[in-house]
Amino acid sequence: MRRPGTARAGSTREGAARRHRHASSELVFTPEELARVIGLQCLVGGALALVWALLPWNADAAWSPPVVGLAAVAGVIGLGMVVLGAVTTSARVLARAVHSCILSVQVLVAVGYAVTGETGSPILLFLLWTTAYAGILSRRARWGHVVSTALLISAASTTHAVAVDAAEVVVFLMSTIVVVTLVVSRSAERLHEAATHDALTGLPNRRVFYRRAGALLAGRRGSGGGVAVALLDLDRFKHVNDSYGHGAGDALLVELARRLEETLSADDLVVRLGGDEFAVLHGSSAAVDVDDLWARLSSAWAEPFELEGRRLYVDGSAGIAIAAPTDTPATLLRDADAAMYEAKAQGTGRRRVFDRSTSAQGHRLLRLETGLREAVAREELTLVYQPVLDLADGRATGVEGLLRWTSAELGIVGPDEFIPVAERCGMIGHLGLWVLGRAVADLASWRSEGLVDEDFSVAVNVSAYQLTPELPRQVAGLLEVHGVPTRNLALEVTESAIVAGGEPRAVLDALHAMGVTLLLDDFGTGHSSLTRLRELPLDVVKIDRSFVSGVSTAPEDRALVLGVVQLAHALGMRVIAEGIEHREQLEHLREAGCGAGQGYLLARPVPGADLVEALARASAACAPSPKEQPEAARVRT
Ligand code: C2E
Ligand code: MG
Ligand code: MG
Fold first, then answer.
1. Cα dihedral sign for 84, 88, 91, 96?
2. Rg, Å, the chain Cα set
3. Nearest CA to ligand 1 atom 45
4. Measuring from atom 23 of ligand 1, which residue has the nearest CA?
5. Per-range mean pLDDT, top range of 112-116, 239-243, 249-253, 599-603
6. Is the beta carbon of 525 within 6 A of some atom in ligand 1?
């Protein structure tokens, strides 16, 4: 069994770079750019040679006319390269043209040097400008052109009368050319590395993915081989960052990159697309074996990660798209993304193969994510409020704020659909903060207008992902800015958010210590018992609608509600019943001693502007009939 890997950023980066340098033929300068630049060099070099040959004190020299001729040839070659760079897109043609151009310059310079003898040094400088460009194309080209320069210049220098002087010039010039070529090539390599590789993991980036996928798809067209893209995403990676710090998050990514590289075959390309998202481009001569691919991918996180002395188990999900004949790199990636969303929607550690017949759901999830990213800025979000009433006397004690999204593109989207998307794509913190800000601001204005009394509270739903160490500070800041007392704010959390312990627990403790009321939402839908939750700093338990709906018809539900109410009271917690739709339910809840409730029978969620009216209607609907009153007063705790 492999030992848990420890994160070594440097070695992975080098390994990845080594493996991919030879594999990626992407150039930091395109052949078109190189052709144009070298063409301009020839034009300028030719012009300078011309000026030099026509200088008054050189004009009468015997070598002047041939050099003028050579300069003219250089100009024509340069012009040709500039034109070629503008009209041809074939990388192969352009690369060959660049090599031929450099070789022609070498010949021209050698001839010029032979003709001018010792005075030819200015022409030799021309070589310095051109030979170095060969190194950008490839290592082989770099040394090939340096050798050809050396041979041509040595041959030209043998024609000189004073061979010793000429040898000095050749040695000096050649060493300068070697140094310049090395410097230029190295800089180009560094630029290439930065433009095509991810700085953290050293893996190739999206740009390389697009080029390689394009080439692979073009090569497979019509042939039987299979091409697939697997998009990988770590589950709850944000949690790792939030709990252990960004340093640990980075180390995890680096180690994961190393493991992915190790588990995949040489034909697969692993790239980091950003954040915790990786893509694997898989090309095989046979049909794609999805099970085998997933087995290899998931083995990358099968063993725990050792981060800064701590052992961490992580899971990942994958969306896999198998290329159809019409696919492009962009459509493949889009489909893999859609499949990944479907995988994530099913839970953690899942994989999903993109299926055209069910793709609509995946694409909708993608559109939801894209839309959500802009929803706040486009002011598409609103908060509606559902009154919460004291069941004993029908008094409105507060409201629950519920988020609504009217998307310009998708229409009205329910929170049950978009909240999970926001949680998965890391948007929930941003949305949650908007909700908190809106709710506190609205409560402040109702208070200042005298529409609600001093004790009236507003509750907002808080997702597990929002329980970060910054939350108490953010809440305190908002309350202070709007002048709202802490006790008037309530936060609703679900069981799953808090039973995990660890950091969320510490955040809840901090909020509770500040005086914020904490509600346990949807109680009964999770798996924990009230006794297990008793050590949590909770003030209120909200009984889920699924139990309330059966309270007047199913004896088991009635017994359950009664049990929850009694136990909650025994543990010093208050109870709110959710989703009261019928009068019989309300009466049974009263009988069971449930202190407060909300539901369509009393009031539907309404915009803040309609609150006063809704509160009045809800109170009227909730007011106990005179016959009920003594009973309710007797059982209420
Ligand atoms: P929840 O917190 O349990 O909210 C109660 C849901 O039940 C609301 O649905 C509400 O409109 C609905 N409801 C209330 N009374 C009745 C009733 O009598 N009958 C029926 N059938 N439904 C009733 P909504 O607004 O669609 O919210 C659904 C869930 O989305 C919420 O459940 C909550 O978990 C989540 N949510 C809403 N707003 C936010 C938010 O700002 N942040 C977070 N994290 N979650 C939110
Ligand atoms: Mg709620
Ligand atoms: Mg609820």
1. negative
2. 36
3. 461
4. 579
5. 599-603
6. no
Whether residue 204 has its Cβ less than 6 Å from ligand 1: no
Select from 381, 388, 402 the residue to mutate for testing ligand 1; criterion: most ligand atoms less than 8 Å from CB.
Answer: 402
| pLDDT tens sequence across 100-129 | 999 999 999 899 888 888 777 778 888 877
Taking CA atoms only, the protein residue closest to ligand 1 atom 37 is: 402
Q: Which ligand 1 atom sits nearest the alpha carbon of residue 463? A: 44
Q: By three-state DSSP, how is residue 593 classified?
A: coil
pLDDT at position 543 over 90? yes
Cα–chain center distance at 497: 24
CB 424 within 8 A of CB 276: no
Which bin fits 222, alpha (ψ -120 to 50), beta or left (φ > 0)?
left
Q: What distance in angstroms lies between residue 69's CA and the mean position of ligand 3's atoms? A: 88
446-486 residue pLDDT tens: 999 999 999 999 999 999 889 988 999 999 999 999 999 99
Total-model pTM? 0.57
What pLDDT is recorded for position 500?
54
With left for phi above 0 and alpha for psi between -120 and 50, is residue 308 left, alpha or beta?
A: left
Index of the ligand 1 atom closest to the CA of residue 522: 3
456: tokens are 């009236």
pLDDT (mean) for 131-160: 84
Delineate the domains of the chain, giving CATH numbers in brackets.
Answer: 22-196 (no CATH), 199-354 (3.30.70.270), 379-636 (3.20.20.450)
- Residues 510, 545 contacting (CB under 8 angstroms): no
Contacts of 118 (CB under 8 A, 6+ apart): 160, 162, 165, 166, 169
464: CA distance to ligand 2 center in Å? 13
